[in-house]
Amino acid sequence: FKPSRGRNPYGPQGGEPWFGQVQEGVLSVSVRDSAAALDATCGPDIGCPSVAERPARPFLDEVSIAPGKLKIAWSAEPLVREGEISTECREALLRTVDQLKALGHELVETALPLDKKALGEGHIMRMMCAAAADVQEARRVLGRKIKPDEFEPETWILASCGDALSSVALEVVSRDLAAQRYLFDEFMQNYDVFLTPTLSKPPVPHGEYLVHGVEKLGAQIAPYIGLGPVLKRLLPFMMTGLQEKNFDWVAAPPAFNITGSPSVSLPLQWSEDGLPIGMMFTAGFQDDACLFRLAGQLEREFPWAQKRPALASISTS
Question: CA 116 from chain center: how many Å?
């Protein structure tokens, strides 16, 4: 469960991580545990830049309340890149749509009125700047020069790109993403929930998207050959490729990191290999309660707690 921006405190030193794109929650087996955790942690801290409204009742209570008939928009399109999602994820989405209709909800297929290029490139540029800031913070805390091999190659490359970005470019991105956030909030005035697959294809093996071969070698030697001036020239031409690669698998969640809307990913479907295919439900800003009511209903109708690997040792009581 990803709470609304400002629902959980960031302080005392965190500010809004990643330009407000990080909203911290917990991973849990049950909807109940996610609700109880948010009840325990939510609320403002001193100096908090964003403060969510106080909930009408504990989120734990919402889990057992029927959601009523909801108007749910849905789409099988990637949200932060062009292209399509896998056939397996699309079929899983269609099964979920049918399940929701059977529960009495109104389902409407529609595309979001958002600019995929602006969302994808903006998210990546913010990742770059945040990585660069993290490297500088490590340098400040340790009081010494940072060695490239103290970071993963991917992180170091992101940080190098962040160093190459101008403050003007970052401000332009912030304005563009603010406009996208407004468009999504306006869209959600007509719907209770938006549904899309959490991922563009079923879970991949660990390390699938780490750099390999020539890319890894380039990342390792980059710190020693002064890439700054080169990156400043190349970045505008690199963004499309970076967008396609970074969001090949995760093509929906970044959109809602940007909007700050509450989202929940539920393992409602399963791949041919027996791995979960998550369905992501997103509500209007600060309407976390709606998601807990819907998630509670879906967990009761389509329980998943017992679907776990044989090697897992998890109590579901």
Answer: 15
Which CATH architecture is the domain 17-301 placed in? Alpha-Beta Complex (3.90)
Q: Where are the domains of the chain?
A: 17-301
The neighbour count for residue 145, using CB atoms within 10 Å, is 6
Q: Give the residue among 89, 84, 80, 11 at the shortest CA–CA distance from 50.
A: 11
What pTM was estimated for this model as a whole?
0.90
Whether the pLDDT of residue 57 is over 80: the answer is yes
Tokens of 118: 């602006």
**pLDDT tens digits for range 161-217:** 888 888 999 999 999 999 999 999 999 999 999 999 999 999 888 877 776 555 555
CA-based nearest residue to 298, from 107, 35, 106, 99: 99
Instruction: Read off the tokens for 86.
Output: 């896998």
pLDDT tier for residue 31 given thresholds of 50, 70 and 90: very high
- State how far the Cα of 106 lies from the Cα of 71, in Å rounded to an integer: 5
- What is the structure's pLDDT at 242? 72
The angle at the Cα of 96, spanning 90 to 98, to the nearest 5 degrees, equals: 110
Quick check: 278 and 93 in contact, CB under 8 A? no
Instruction: State how far the Cα of 225 lies from the Cα of 216, in Å rounded to an integer.
Output: 15
Tokens of 167: 């403050």
Q: Which two tokens stand for residue 239?
A: 């963004």
DSSP bridge pairs for 194? 73, 282
**Contact status, residue 2 vs residue 25, Cβ threshold 8 Å:** yes
Q: Residue 32 is encoded by which pair of tokens?
A: 């109940």
| Token couple for 134 | 């993290």
Predicted confidence band at 225 (pLDDT cuts at 50, 70, 90)?
low
Picking from 86, 158, 88, the residue whose alpha carbon sits closest to that of residue 123 is: 158
User: Angle at CA 246, nearest 5°, toward 242 and 250?
Assistant: 150
Residue 73 bridge partners (DSSP): 108, 194
Place of tokens 């170091």: 156
